[in-house]
Specification:
- Keywords: Signal.
- This is Lipoprotein.
- It comes from Flavobacterium araucananum.
- With 307 residues, the protein is mainly alpha-helical.
- The longest helix is centred in the middle third of the chain and has 71 residues.
- Helix 1 packs parallel to helix 7, helix 4 runs antiparallel to helix 9 and helix 6 runs antiparallel to helix 12.
- It has a domain of 198 residues.
- 69% of the residues lie in helices and 3% in strands.
- It contains twelve helices and two strands; from the N terminus they run αααααααβααααβα.
Length: 307
């Protein structure tokens, strides 16, 4: 009987140990939690010319030649002054050529900015997905081990109850084995799982959530477009608001507590595998929205091609 109690106690301890969640550490974790996706240099926009509007006819010229959508794009990427001057220049071929080159250069720069930001978001999405898959693999392995232990324990309990002649001992073994097997089974249904400590230095999701670009993580042209209602399909909310609302509804079930907000949109913290998958999905969704801005540039480029 004493051995039986010891055996039962050891099994209980093993169950408790196997069910505890831990914060994973190691070289693989260190590599993936380090944000190798962020730019390695600080972009210097100080040498880019910012044209000043000194032409009272500018707005009327643009309104006569462009749609409201394309005018907003022009202003977002700051080519409206160049374009107005280009449309008013008739005989000076060299001036027109210089103005057209400036317009083309700014379109190319904006396209590069879109692709650079989308690439960073894509890289982060892949990085966080790898972390999530790594944690999932460890948790799935634990679940398999618990399942095997549960089946083995059930089989041993059945054999033991048959072999033990003493009825009281047999009953105790049967009950204890059944409870332990049930406990192991419960762990496979709702495992705690291991976690990751993910600290966030450059958090591109935070700019969208708080509608704040003071850190200049987003180029001014892209940030301006994201905050203009004209560029959303509904026309009721701008792209920044639409993205935030989707996150709130589909990732946080319509409400978010302060701890979760800090985890996703501030300094980070302890992430479960599900949290990591959610973060990766949000990064990928934001990436898709940023890439779609090329469609707005395309609209303007097609119109400019006709001048």
């Amino acid at each position: 009987m004493k051995r039986l109690k010891i055996f039962t106690g050891l099994l209980l301890v093993s169950i408790l140990v196997s069910s505890c969640s831990t914060v994973l550490k190691g070289r693989k974790i260190d590599y993936l939690t380090n944000n190798f996706c962020q730019p390695t240099i600080q972009y210097d926009y100080s040498q880019i010319e910012i044209p000043k509007n000194s032409d009272p006819k500018q707005d009327s010229i643009l309104n006569a030649n462009l749609s409201r959508h394309d005018i907003l794009i022009c202003k977002a990427i700051r080519i409206e002054t160049y374009l107005s001057a280009y449309l008013q220049t008739k005989n000076d071929t060299l001036k027109k050529l210089v103005l057209k080159q400036k317009i083309t250069d700014r379109l190319i720069l904006t396209s590069i900015e879109i692709n650079a930001l989308a690439s960073e978001l894509d890289c982060n999405g892949e990085r966080i997905n790898k972390l999530a898959d790594f944690v999932d693999d460890i948790n799935n392995k634990r679940t398999r081990n618990i399942t095997v232990a549960s089946v083995t324990l059930g089989a041993l309990t059945t054999v033991a109850t048959v072999l033990i002649k003493n009825n009281n001992a047999s009953n105790i073994v049967g009950v204890s084995g059944g409870l332990l097997s049930a406990g192991l089974g419960a762990l496979t249904i709702s495992p705690k799982g291991d976690k990751i400590n993910l600290k966030l230095q450059r958090n591109l999701l935070a700019n969208i959530w708080y509608n704040d670009n003071l850190n200049q993580a987003y180029p001014n042209s892209i940030w301006t477009i994201l905050n203009e209602k004209q560029f959303s399909n509904s026309g009721e909310n701008d792209l920044q608001e639409s993205i935030k609302n989707r996150w709130l509804q589909y990732n946080f079930d319509g409400k978010i507590d302060p701890e979760t907000q800090r985890l996703f949109f501030d300094e980070g913290g302890i992430y479960t595998a599900d949290d990591l998958h959610s973060r990766a999905n949000m990064l990928n969704e934001l990436q898709s929205t940023v890439r779609s801005l090329d469609q707005d540039l395309k609209s303007l480029a097609i119109r400019l091609n006709g001048f």
